[in-house]
Design goal:
Layout (H helix, E strand, L loop, with lengths): L4 H5 L3 H13 L6 E2 H8 L3 H13 L3 E4 L5 E4 L1 H15 L4 E9 L2 E7 L3 E7 L6 H7 L11 H19 L8 E5 L2 E5 L4 E2 L8 H17 L2 E2 L8 E4 L2 E4 L6 E2 L5 H20 L5 H9 L1
Antiparallel strand pairs: 1-3, 2-3, 4-5, 5-6, 6-8, 7-8, 9-11, 10-13, 11-12
Helix pairs in contact: 2-4, 8-9, 8-10, 9-10
Length: about 280
């Protein structure tokens, strides 16, 4: 469900309280029992039931009857909490339109001190188990709600951007709250949608960026033509939540995979030949 700024702005303070309680309680419960919410919020049963009904109408929480009656946030509910916090902090003033969507994220434009981009991490939106298998920072089993996985994903990306910018051309990181990263808005398009006028120059720039990232102790891990933005003559590396350090046990293999993805794309589309081993040696040298 798309984020509705009107719905978020119209939330009653009791409804915001209930969202916070469900958020905190999801660390313990898969479905937060109604009696737990009533006890935590300190309101009458009828008031809580009424407010929960309003939250469900707005698509911010879900109800499950089995194995017991309980409630949980959905992504739009978690989005609302993050946006409320960012507005309160003064990071953003207005929410714009959706401008991008990935496998496990959506990106909106917003207004802060200037135009910014909000990246909402939605880990497990399609398959939570697959997400667990692909991310070292997520436990392989046990209770680990998607809200915490999404938050960890955002915090990791924010950390990578802070460590890399401005040495590597990545979006300028501005703020992070829960599963939302606030960053510079890049006006451009992903490289897979472009026809490059000087592909050799862009490839060399990309390899230099990969090399500098490596020198900063970071490997992207998910690099491809879909994670490079072209803006004028610039190429900007995006989507960093899966990064690993150069001290990772599989660092060289993961780095080679990133480089292979880029070299394969430029060979397929522009017939450029760069040997993998030699290129990898130059990046790590």
């Amino acid at each position: 469900m798309a984020i509705s700024a009107g719905d978020i702005k119209g939330l009653h303070r009791y409804e915001i309280q209930i969202l916070h309680i469900i958020e905190r309680s999801m660390q313990r419960y898969k479905w937060v029992p109604l009696d737990h919410i009533v006890k935590a919020v300190g309101l009458s049963d009828s008031e809580v039931t009424f407010r929960i009904g309003k939250l469900m109408e707005k698509g911010l929480i879900r109800f499950e009857a089995l194995p017991y009656e309980g409630y949980a946030l959905v992504f739009t509910g978690y989005d609302a909490l993050a946006l409320l916090a960012l507005v309160k902090k003064g990071t953003i003033r207005a929410l714009g339109c959706q401008i991008g969507e990935g496998k496990e994220s959506v990106v909106y434009e917003a207004l802060g001190l200037g135009n910014v981009a909000l990246k909402f991490h939605h880990v497990g939106q399609r398959s939570f188990q697959t997400a667990r298998q692909k991310r070292d920072y997520m436990p392989g089993e046990g209770h680990y709600p998607w809200i915490y996985a999404s938050r960890s994903s955002a915090e990791r990306e924010y950390e990578a951007l802070r460590r890399l910018h401005p040495v590597v051309r990545v979006p300028l990181p501005i703020d992070c709250n829960r599963h939302v990263v606030v960053m510079e808005e890049i006006i451009g398009t992903t490289m897979n949608r472009c026809v490059l006028e000087d592909p050799d120059a862009i490839l060399n720039t990309l390899l230099s960026q990969i090399r500098e990232s490596y020198r900063q102790g970071i490997i992207h891990v998910d690099l491809s033509e879909f994670n490079v933005m072209i803006s004028g003559e610039e190429c900007i590396l995006i989507d960093w939540p899966q990064w690993v350090g150069t001290d990772h046990q599989n660092a060289l293999d993961l780095l080679k995979r990133d480089i292979r993805n880029i070299l394969t794309y430029f060979h397929r589309k522009y017939s450029l030949e760069y040997p993998l081993e030699e290129t990898t040696g130059w990046v790590t040298g």
